[in-house]
Amino acid sequence: MNINMTLFFEMIAFATFVFFCMKFVWPPLLGAIEERQKKIEEGLAAADRSQKDLELAQKNAEKTMHEAKEKAAELIDQAKKRHAEIVDAAKDDARAEADKIKAGAQAEIEQEVHRAREELRKQVSLLAVAGAEKILQKSIDASAHSDILDNLVAEL
Amino acid sequence: MSEAGHELTSSGYIKHHLVNLQVCQTEEGWQWDPEVCSGKFNTVHVDSIGFAVVLGLIFSLLFHRAAKKATPGVPGKFQAFVELIIEFVNKSVKETFHGSSKLIAPLSLTIFCWIFLMNSMDWVPVDLLPWIGTWFGIEYLKVLPTADPNITFGMSLTVFVLIIFYSIKIKGPVGFFKELAFQPFGKWMLPFNLILEVVSLVARPVSLALRLFGNLYAGELLFLLIALLFTAGPFGILGGAIAQFIWACFHLLVIPLQAFIFMMLTIVYLSMAHEDH
Hints:
A: mainly alpha; B: 9 helices; 3 strands
């Protein structure tokens, strides 16, 4: 074991390398590692957050979908009801219209009947006058006896 | 291998391998002869310090390159590898040392990587680099820096200086003295306490340096002995190859472990220096 000057050179070399390492090697490398750790931590936190957001969004979507379905069902119900109402109303209208047409036709018929009857009466009175003329062998002034004829017609 | 002209003996081979390439200044100028320089204090082990500095530069430049390109985004393969080591060291420091210090983590990283690289020279076949050295007229070459007590003591004494520095900085000179003098037996046993505590304090760098030195020196020595087996005929070559393989595998454990132990104990000692009672 020869202890000599080498020892001091080694001490100087050691101190130099440690100093170099302390100044130029350790801080940038550890800094990079720590920064990456922070980034990864943030990334994981962000992933967690977005996962939660996703769950919330899914829940919201489900809720919205449910609501939409309910609304749609309601709308369909309403539409059905409205449809029934419209059909009913149309039926009523049609019935009323039919009644009206029927009533008009009835009235016309009655009018026709009335007119026919009047016509008939007139014909009958004319026939009666002609008959009476034949019977009496002389003409009768139709206008002089019109009141009698009218009475006759009314009695028919 | 042994230089031409000398007879190759087992003990000569081993001794030759355990001599550093060294230089010292005498009245006759620079001397490269180990016979002259050995034992002189102004000798420098050129091989130990040379390999140590080269390996330290490899570590520093590689990590500096990674640090320059470091991105907090997706890391490249090399950055990921460097970050693996950084995280490992950072975890070790955080588990043991609870204060805040800008020095301890980079210090631990340097210790771990540098010692690991220096220990790794043990995997290089024992004769390879000395043999290449002979091409350039280098007679002696010890490639394993951590098998040189100068290197291990150089590191552990630097750590020791830091222990003393932080003890005084954190606790104050009085607090540091109190810790040494009034523990563990109270103030009536002051001299005894002082002896006990100073011994345990001094034992730290000594044990730190000797543990690393001893492990690697023994490892290298065994590699040398195994290398000798290769001269003992065909069975020797076969046995030597097997033994070499097994011992190298064993060093897969020893080399990182010794680097880790040196780093861990440094962290422990420095965290003890930071603790104020």
